[in-house]
Amino acid sequence: MKKNVKMFLPKGLILFLKRTLQNIIDFLVSFNLFPLVNNKKLNSLKLTKKDFKECFIIGGGPSIKNQNLDLLVDKFTIVHNAFFLLKDTYKLKPSLYVIEDPWPAKDNKEELNKIQDINFVVPFQLRKSINKRSNINYINFDYSYIDSSELNKDQNLKFKFSEDISKKGFWGGTVVYLSLQIAYFLGFKKIYLLGVDLSYTIPKSAIIDGNIITSTEDDPNHLHKDWFGKGKRWHFPRQDRMKIAIEYAVEFLAKKGVEVYNFSPVSKIKGAKNIDFYKLMHEK
Asked: pLDDT tens, 61-97?
């Protein structure tokens, strides 16, 4: 029904309505009047930082296969989407689990809802997939502040970076963008990116419907074959846009005195120096 209504509304009107609704939600959240977002609970996440000095944001890129994540067992780590697939591979217990894309939330909801001992940060819009419970922290997440549907205007997109995710978080074309906002909110001054390879291939057998891809075989783009494996849905990868968003975040963070480093041997992110994972781990 919702999809059918959108077919008959002008694109500009749809965007206007989304932004108007978002403005109303922003107002309610700012006065702690939006029942789905608990500002006090979100702020209490800062206590989980404890004495950790560094934050390790773990993406899903296959370069991680050459990096032993068990070296991070005593570090503050943020993971995403289908990381639960690796629970028997590593001893690592993540500090925080972050999801912002509706498809990974829907397609993995059965397994994600079994996790009770790791704090989650997810947009309240995903509450139908990620059930409310004590370890779930819903945030006000703005998917609509920019028109991301234009295919050839990535350079013109004006990304925003939240300094307080208890009030609002911003979309950036990749879940890593949200995690960077969370790491800053928690107070980290040094952030390391793992598996942010920014490299994708679309299998010839994949079913493509607009910007939605449904896999029919193993996932070649992530560290586990079932991450977006057979039957899983994912958005058409716009790695150039992801790179622009992450570089904007890195630049923003640098101005705030936060250093960002890149462990991926595959990607080059302006402002995030590439460093060797094992060299750093052995120095600590």
From this structure: 999 999 999 999 999 999 999 999 999 999 999 999 9
CA distance 1 to 7: 10
Please state, in angstroms and as integers, the Cα–Cα distance from residue 153 to each residue in 49, 240, 244, 245, 268, following that order. Answer: 37, 11, 11, 13, 21
Of 257, 264, 232, 260, the residue nearest 246 (C-alpha): 260
Distance CA 177, CA 161 (A): 9
CA-CA distance, 223 to 270, in Å (whole number)? 24
Side-by-side strand order, sheet with 76-80: 136-139, 119-123, 96-98, 76-80, 54-58, 190-194, 259-262, 273-274
Helix (H, G, I), strand (E, B) or coil at 139: strand
The pTM for the full model equals 0.94
Tell me how many degrees the CA angle 130-72-222 measures, rounded to the nearest 5. 55
Amino acid of residue 204: K
Domains and CATH numbers, the chain: 2-283 (3.90.1480)
